[in-house]
Amino acid sequence: MDYESWAWKTLGSIIGVGISMVMIAPRSVKNGIYRAFLGTVAGIVFAPATQNLVFWLQGDSPDMLVASACATGFTVWFILEAAARFLSSKDTLRRLLEEMVRLKGPDKK
Predict the structure, then answer these.
(1) How many CB atoms neighbour CB 105 within 10 A?
(2) Collapsing DSSP states into helix, strand and coil, what is residue 101?
C-alpha cells in the first residue's frame, strides 16, 4: 500500500478544510469538529474523483495529490456548512414545507 499518497491527500484535505473554515466559520465548536472530520475524510476519499473531473489536477505527484484533496476538502466543508445554515433557519424550513405541500396538490381519490 502506498502510504505516501495517503499522507499527501490527508495534508491537502486538512488544508482545504482549514481554508474553508476561515471563510465560513462554524456556528459552534461541536459543528466545527464533526464537519472538519467529515470534510477531511471526504477530501481523502474523493480526491481521486476530483482528479478525474478536473483535468489540470491529474497526476500522482505530491503537489497534484495535495491540490486535489485540498479542493475536495474545501468543497465538502463549504457544502456541509452552507446546507446546515440553510436548513437551520426555521423560516427556510417552513417555506420549503409549504412549497412541498403546494406541489403535491389536492388529494385525488
Answers:
(1) 7
(2) helix
